[in-house]
Amino acid sequence: MGLRLIPRTQSAHDAPLLIHRLLDTPLRQSPDQTIHYRDERTFTYKQLYERICRLAGALSKLGIGQGDTVAVMDWDSNRYLEAFFAVPMLGAVLHTINVRLSPEQMLYTINHAKDDVILVNADFLPLLDGFKDRMPSVKRVVLMRDAAHGDAMPETALELAGEYEALLDEAPAEHHFELFDENAMATVFYTTGTTGDPKGVYFSHRQLVLHTLGTLTALTAFRCQTNIDSGAVYMPITPMFHVHAWGFPYAMTLLGAKQIYPGRYEPAMLLRLLSEHDVTLSHCVPTILHMLVSSEAVKSVDLSRWAVIIGGSALPQGLCRAALELGINVYTGYGMSETCPVLTLANLKPNLLDLPLAEQVQWRCRTGLAVPLVQLELHDANGARQPHDGKSAGEVVVRTPWLTQGYLDDSERSEQLWRGGWLHTGDVATIDAEGYLQITDRIKDVIKTGGEWVSSLELENVLSKHEAVSEVAVVGVADERWGERPVAVVVPRIDLSGPVSEADLKALFAPLVEDGTLSSYAVPDRVLFRDQLPKTSVGKIDKKVLRQDVAQALAD
Amino acid sequence: MGLRLIPRTQSAHDAPLLIHRLLDTPLRQSPDQTIHYRDERTFTYKQLYERICRLAGALSKLGIGQGDTVAVMDWDSNRYLEAFFAVPMLGAVLHTINVRLSPEQMLYTINHAKDDVILVNADFLPLLDGFKDRMPSVKRVVLMRDAAHGDAMPETALELAGEYEALLDEAPAEHHFELFDENAMATVFYTTGTTGDPKGVYFSHRQLVLHTLGTLTALTAFRCQTNIDSGAVYMPITPMFHVHAWGFPYAMTLLGAKQIYPGRYEPAMLLRLLSEHDVTLSHCVPTILHMLVSSEAVKSVDLSRWAVIIGGSALPQGLCRAALELGINVYTGYGMSETCPVLTLANLKPNLLDLPLAEQVQWRCRTGLAVPLVQLELHDANGARQPHDGKSAGEVVVRTPWLTQGYLDDSERSEQLWRGGWLHTGDVATIDAEGYLQITDRIKDVIKTGGEWVSSLELENVLSKHEAVSEVAVVGVADERWGERPVAVVVPRIDLSGPVSEADLKALFAPLVEDGTLSSYAVPDRVLFRDQLPKTSVGKIDKKVLRQDVAQALAD
User: Fold this and answer.
1) Which of B139, B448, B506, B544 is catalytic?
2) Maximum CA pair distance of chain B?
3) Which of A347, B317, B366, B414: CA 20 to 30 A from A424?
4) ipTM score of the complex?
5) CB contact under 8 A, A405 and B7
6) What is the model's pTM?
């Protein structure tokens, strides 16, 4: 008879998944729980809700309504949290400006997102000054000040609509929020690749609510190395402009947990807040954790209740070990701007919890287990599903109710992202029989030879173990018969007595082929020597340039 | 500019909220965890998934496809759990037949739901035999057998399509499930009122998935008297035909928890399973808990890890106390057939956990705190919102993404249920400043006088404390000036020395009016005496009959 949709009586209300609904629970559960901004200000959840109402009222007065865009340039603050709610609750779109972009890129995103109002921390006002008369969509600018800025209004060429706290004071303590479609856009922000302009990704109310519930279930419902619940004390150390601080502020607000917003990341302030509030949950990139772990001050702080989820790039085993030794409960999370972001968490299954910490390291450093509602598969170059055997590699493709449905105003790259109805992460990985994902490569660094994928990372690992090798990179070069063939480029150590030959290095692969660790077609055809490798502006090996260099060298 | 919906690139997949997706997580998280049926059979989650595929294949072979209806008549079993998934995953509708209805009511629901296939436990086959030739929509009947039934096929006038296990054996171990709209109907079942035919309520995939996530968050994420996680051992003691066993089988399956299905409820078997599997979570009506708590056998079982959520009717404080004394972690949940069902759980907030158990009783017996995504308000007779002050009473009205959007094929009662865009529960309650709901009455038992609501329960409590009162009921009788006025009817204790007068009993109210506990307009106009009170077939006081009796008596 064909699919039967549920009938709805005329007066029935179907309760759209709106961000507003995330606030109902903490207001019942823990209205007096506190939210802290550095050592400067403290608010209760009741006050948070009142401030959200006031911000909504103030923005309405500035002309913001459904479909308008409000941008924020701020460090991690209670103000940012207020904007996370108030702006989407108005039916407007929150643009979280990445303040680490180059000024021209930042200006590009302001104009591309067509920001109507910008809320700007005084620290970034000089930057915004520089964009004067080049932001045609921007109608009003609101200033946000910290204790360090004093009371005086800063010098600016821009006409300010007012100061954030003053505007809130003037606005009513209650606001009536309209109901609307859960597919309304709630947030937009930009992700940068190695080439081209920043790309805008965007998320609806529905997507953010489901991301909150899915992530929260993964964090709280499964027996693992953490025991997160509403008693958590949360402090983000991933900027709130970066994929909603990985969505945690929404999840922790629903929980009614104590929250600490640290402002600009300063090691002394971070450690002080960690210690003073006995923080139990944070997330950050490996660099930040490394900075904290290797600081002198860390030794005087008890971090034995602190869980830290690492994302952004892989958690190195050495750093994981060092953090565990300090009592820090560290493990991996995985996602990207396009995915809202959380896809996996390296939750240890109960049988792994009995392992000594040293043996837990390899599991904590895995990319992790997919969180509820995430479908995660490995596809080969032809879109064929690869088995979950811990060996077969494929590109990670996903389906889950919280993926950007395209790049803003970029139909070509949108279709490329979603080809075949799966979101393509561009990451190459294996999935083992226990369900743990392990990313091995970016797909653009993978070498496709004879229809098979060879991991450049794996080959580089083999070569890097030879004492004569200082730096190494493996790239694929075009090959008429095989499509691509792997070629290694090595920078030899200069302090060695004798020289190393191409044959010496190629010999490293023979035993691996023999024992089946490596396929014979994976062995590099050539090992070239260079005095140095080309690098990008941030110090990573530039494989694009290297590929051209190698192709040229082989053609000569 | 008006609301801005997120644009979707053509190839984008928006991941509908389908019941199928609840299975992804346990298959990754705990594929070898077990599901038990009495002491008869054990399956792993991997096997559960295979059996779901086989059931789907078998049903497809019987002609079941999208929009068809498959009914189940069974005790709580792994087969029922398989049907909870396989039937909706096919895009078909699962009708969970209430086997406690009268035969004629049951037949009514089979015909009203237009069941295509019925899966029937041999215990109910004679009943179904009696419906032969009176179920025009039913095309096939599948027999389900327990160990007690032996191997022989039972006598029946019906033509059987086969036996459940045999059909599963013949079906393929894998099944390709189509994707479809999340608003597809997944389940239907019937609720009975005091008058009229049973009413059909129905739930979509989206509603069941959101109910699962919302309930699971309430159960696992908030610090309270239980610490439920994937290590839970779950055994339902609410029938699976009754509002999806309150939705717990879906939630516990997503968790990958150990599950025990007890079949027909037999006290000895229940206690044996509780003990043998060290069950940590169940739910039931007060009657069942009372039966277990007062059994002789309970003394020999350690139930100190057992949490029991009580629903269906209020948890009496005496029963709560008795259960707590046995070490049982008992508390209230609230919902109804129309609400999927969970609306509230009596989670104790952290500050209440320090109270001695005796003082926790009043909190554990409250109706509870609304779970995430539930909006719950009190409306007076005019639909005006009442304050949450612990005193102002109103009808509980709700909005949440998992409410039946009407009664099946009953437009009049559908609109009545949803008048004003809120689902009307028919329960009268207060909400205190901490957010706890406390139901005081069914709205039909509330007395509306001079535009105010008076709780019959409250007045009955006052009168029942007098030593001369054996039974009491308070009803409203029509009054030209006030709309209604309260009148009490008392059955005096026959073993008392002296008689009790109307004035004696009315005098009980004076101090309560004086100290402000009771409004003066709430004091009953009359107290009548009777030898007995009219009762319904299940032994409840029949207030409908009593109202007529009182009106008649006062008119005489």
Assistant:
1) B448
2) 86
3) A347
4) 0.91
5) yes
6) 0.91
